[in-house]
Specification:
By secondary structure, the protein is an alpha+beta fold. Among the domains are: 169 residues, Bacterial polysaccharide co-polymerase-like (2-Layer Sandwich), CATH 3.30.1890; 117 residues. It has a four-stranded antiparallel sheet, covered by helices on one side. Strand 2 and strand 3 form a beta hairpin. Helix 4 crosses helix 6. The longest helix has 59 residues. The chain is elongated.
Length: 473
């Protein structure tokens, strides 16, 4: 079937096509006029996800921001937020609302009038972020502009209040948990310190200062080691001093000078008087005396230095013996001190954990006292005077198109159920033979019709055997 055949069928069955279309148009128009009108009310606020929290210093960004926005959209349509909006509007005390609730058949066992109102309002709520901005739009469609605007504003206020309440409640619960953990940690610290004190008393461990300081025996060993180092330094200093005293002994120097003078005198007397002269012999005797005195002076100086060195070495040996004995004591007590060090580390870890828990609890206490949210209210709610539902033009158009499609299907069904010959093409199709010619009535030429025929590709020709054509007049 070509286009000409299809158009002929439509023209022949035009009533069957147009009647359902206009009936559907009438029905759609009637239904659109009977549907209750709904007007959109809009309230906006800005999600301040860039600015960090004033207490924790944590901000929201990237994928976390998208998840945050999706969570806020779900929260706006949550039953608690919608119920709070119902309470703010006082709808449960409205006589007309009470009457509609009584006629609805909803029972108190199902949640009462408040739950019924939530179920009525919730399906007409929508929320979302405008484009790529941080502006959140809360939209509600109501039976009147005033009611829609009031509900949108109440939803925004309820949402802000619920967000703040959730934040405060979460901070309070978490803070209480941290305080409880801090109390448990404090009791653990007291128990650990009591065990530590008992352990020190049983083993006679005395610390010179607080935890981590050396015990008394270790302090004694450290003191002896310092004394040994000091004694060694004193011995070196005494040896240097003795060497210096030997080099600058005034008595020995004086005797050496006298001895040199006597030697010169003896040499002079030997030349002048000879070795047998009494004066020469007296000089020799005086030299022997000076020599003996010099030897005695040097011997006394050496004895004094030796005595000092012996005393210093004795002191060093004494200190070394004390250090060896003290090292044995410290070595024997080393396992006890190591166990005490482990106890001190555990107590220090518990104290650190306690400080962290107290600090976190204080931060959460501050969060629970905050009465501001990260939202910025953008103006008052607004409502449009033009209803967003029903779209009567769309309903009428779709109804007309649906009726037209139904009429087309009906026309084609009726036509193919009782096929008729409406033109040359139908005749050729019905007989299965070529049409050689057809006779048409004389009618005035219609230029528009001719142009349409040419546009549709219709050629008024009849096929003949051998390829010849006969033009109909």
């Amino acid at each position: 079937m070509n286009l000409i055949q299809f158009l002929r069928i439509l023209w022949a069955r035009r009533l069957l096509v147009l009647v359902p279309a206009f009936v559907a148009l009438a029905v759609g128009t009637l239904v659109g006029s009977l549907l209750p009108e709904r007007y959109p009310g809009v309230a906006r606020l800005m999600l301040d996800t860039i600015r960090p929290d004033p207490i924790t210093g944590i901000g929201v960004g990237g994928r976390d921001a998208r998840d945050f926005v999706r969570t806020q959209v779900q929260l706006i349509t949550d039953e608690r937020v919608v119920g709070d909006a119902v309470d703010r509007l006082g709808l449960t005390r409205d006589p007309a609302t009470i009457a509609r609730y009584a006629a609805s058949g909803f029972r108190e066992e199902d949640g009462g009038i408040r739950r019924w109102l939530v179920n009525q309002i919730k399906p007409r709520i929508s929320a979302g972020v405008l484009g790529n901005s941080a502006v959140m739009e809360i939209r509600y469609e109501g039976p009147s502009p005033e009611f829609a605007k009031a509900v949108a504003g109440a939803l925004r206020d309820a949402y802000v209040a619920e967000t703040l309440r959730l934040k405060v409640d979460t901070a309070e619960r978490t803070g209480a948990w941290y305080r409880e953990q801090a109390q448990k940690t404090a009791r653990a610290i007291e128990q650990a310190e009591a065990e530590r004190a008992k352990f020190m008393a049983e083993n006679g461990i005395i610390l010179t200062a607080g935890p981590g300081s050396p015990d008394l025996e270790t302090a004694k060993l450290q003191s002896l080691q310092q004394s040994l180092a000091q004694a060694q330094a004193n011995v070196s200093a005494q040896q240097i001093q003795a060497t210096a005293q030997t080099a600058v002994n005034p008595l020995a120097d004086q005797l050496r000078v006298q001895l040199t003078a006597v030697d010169e005198e003896i040499a002079r007397l030997s030349e002048q008087l000879g070795p047998q002269h009494p004066t020469y012999r007296a000089a020799v005797a005086r030299r022997a005396i000076i020599q003996q005195q010099l030897a005695n002076a040097l011997r006394q100086q050496g004895a004094a230095a030796s005595a000092i060195s012996s005393a210093s070495q004795s002191t060093l040996r004494q200190i070394e013996q004390q250090i060896a004995a003290q090292e044995k004591i410290v070595q024997q007590r080393k396992p006890l001190l190591e166990k005490l060090a482990v106890m001190d580390q555990n107590i220090a870890a518990l104290r650190k954990s306690y400080d962290e828990q107290i600090n976190r609890s204080n931060v959460l206490d501050l969060e629970s006292e905050v009465r501001e949210t990260s939202f910025i209210i953008l103006g008052d709610p607004v409502a449009e005077r033009t209803p967003s539902y029903p779209n009567r033009i769309l309903i009428s158009s779709l109804s007309f198109l649906g009726g037209l499609a139904l009429g087309l299907l009906a026309a084609l069904f009726v036509e193919f159920s009782n096929r008729r010959v409406r033109g040359v093409e139908d005749l050729a199709y019905a007989t299965g033979a070529p049409v050689l010619a057809h006779i048409a009535s004389r009618r005035p030429a219609v230029p528009l019709r001719a142009r349409l025929q040419r546009l549709l590709g219709r050629r008024r020709r009849d096929a003949v055997e051998g390829g010849g054509e006969l033009q109909a007049i």
